[in-house]
Request: fold
Amino acid sequence: MTAAVHVDTPHLGRGMPAWFLRVAVLLAGAFVVAIPFADGALLGTLFVLCPLAVIAVYAPASPAPSGLVIAAAVMAALTGDDPLRPAVLVMIPAVHLFHVTCGLAGLVPVRGRLHPRALVRPALRFLLVEAIVFAFVGIAALLPATQIPAPIEVAALAGLVVVAVVILLWHRGVFRQPGPRGRDDSHTGGGGR
Amino acid sequence: MSSPEQAGTGVGQRTDDKGPGHRVRRWFLGRREARRMGWRHTDALTRAVVCGFGLAVAGVVLHRLELLLVGAPLLVSVLLTVPPRGTPKVRTMRLADTAEADRFNEVTVTMEPGEGAVLAALRMPMPSRSGVGPVHMLPAVRGVVSARVKWSSWGQSDYLRPDHLLAGHDGLYVLGPVVGHTASHTVLPPVDPLPAAPLPPRAAGLVGAHRSARPGDGMELRDIRPFQTGDRLRRVDWRVSLRAAAATTGGDLVPGTLNVRERHAEADADLVLALDTTLDVSRKMAEWSEITRGAEVRVGGSLDLGVRAVCSLAAAFLRQGDRVGVVDLGHPRGGVAPGTGKRQLQRIRHSLVLAAQRVTGSGEPVLRASQYPRGATIVVLSAFLEDKMVDLTVHAARRGNLVVAVDLMPADLAPDRETPWGDSVRQIIVAEQRLRLAVLADHGVPIGRWKDGTAVAALLRASRRRPRMVRR
Reply:
């Protein structure tokens, strides 16, 4: 044991049931479903959104949450003209919360235990992301709502594609410095098994 | 988690597979296994990338700012995420191979999550339950994760298997799950404090903790009698002898005036605890036909009760200085020969844990004369659901031993509700058991129910004074 290890760590308590995370997914999903409905979406949309939310509760690490996010965004685009109306502004944190809760719920079995202190860093990161996004929303609200020239749009699209490619390559480790491949660098301890 | 080499070996073992696609299949399997090693992305990252960029592109193309804004948090989340690179290490600190039931123990795991890990899903035991426990979601911080655990049930069990999974921000990256090494131990049956009763002394031997009826070299005065040939001089009671001489011969010590002090002999007492390990029945009769998994014992069942009773009785009488042994009625080769001391108690407790594992494979109950010393007190602990138990108990009593029967049948049996005959079956079983106990009582075997041991101690105390049935 190294000196940096905190020996006086408090004992692991009982924590909360991990199905609280599934309840959080359900509540966030219900929120995402309810916003377009309150914004004037047709009742039939519930037949599309509700099953996706229920499947996301059962299998949070499945394509169902992606379907709900895309469907909710499309509903937000179809049900109103003002892009900065309250329904859209509420939808932004709701979709993000749904995404985060699905990501966390996929990590622990339903019968596991959840310790609230594990949620502190995800909560702080959630607030940071929302602060950045709402800063963009503020900038978007200040920009003139006029027709953008086609070359600028093409440049924006190309920029998005470049960003996407760079991020994909980054996450695949292309830009990572190749370090020495020793035993400590390997998850399996260098033994290969 | 297997490695690419293992995966390759697994495919390569099929040397007879010379089909055209086996090399391609092997390559794909190797790639799949390689992807499972180390940090890998999850569905959450796929969702963030696809939905974030997809909605952004769609918003730009369709001129809908809503699409861009709804997908923006996911996009920003991906942009803020640095792929984790650290190498997590989870080490366990093993406990002793044996543990005491109903006492707190600390199970400790040292975690070094490595760079980039935010969350840890770690399997740890729960404070009040046995077993390896559920998966706990914890912050991934370097340090010691410890759980204070109290095992209420005894037996051999796994108490720790630190399976772990590390995750990055928002669960976008994970490492694992990695299956931890299983740590097993033996939880010894608890010893409840119990008042011990005096046991009948064993005829053989001249030392021990019990007063024998025979004269001997003990401490307790038995009689003062005239000197006889063969008496040792150190036994002469000079005060009484001088008084006797003064009264009869005027003070001259002549033959016939010497008196000696006669003392009781001291002797060992053997207690043999014969436990019925052929059956383990609980209060719910519907569970009687179910086979318990592995080394599990039904909590509150006859075997659990019997083992706890044997431990408590053994501890009480060993503390008194008696010789205590255990006979495993279901396995004649099992059990522990009578002995004394603290180590004997440990031997008995370990043997009981082993005996409880073999309930399903036990045969006919056996209690032969060779399994216990002559003159030993025998306590037979059983639910008395078989006539054979009555036979062997009566035979032991007819051999001249003091035999006490302890009924371990759970009180208030619950009938099987899934069959209309459940209550009738319960009544028949209870009636048959009462009949067996009545037969035992007719043969002079005292019977008691196990509650806290006080009743059994009182039963032994009372039985010691009773005349015993001896085969003629």
About this structure: Residues 84 and 141 of chain A are 7 Å apart (CA to CA). The helical segments of chain A are 19-38, 45-58, 64-78, 86-105, 120-142, 150-171. Chain A touches chain B through 81 residues (CB under 8 Å). Residues 1-8, 178-193 of chain A have pLDDT under 50 and may be disordered.
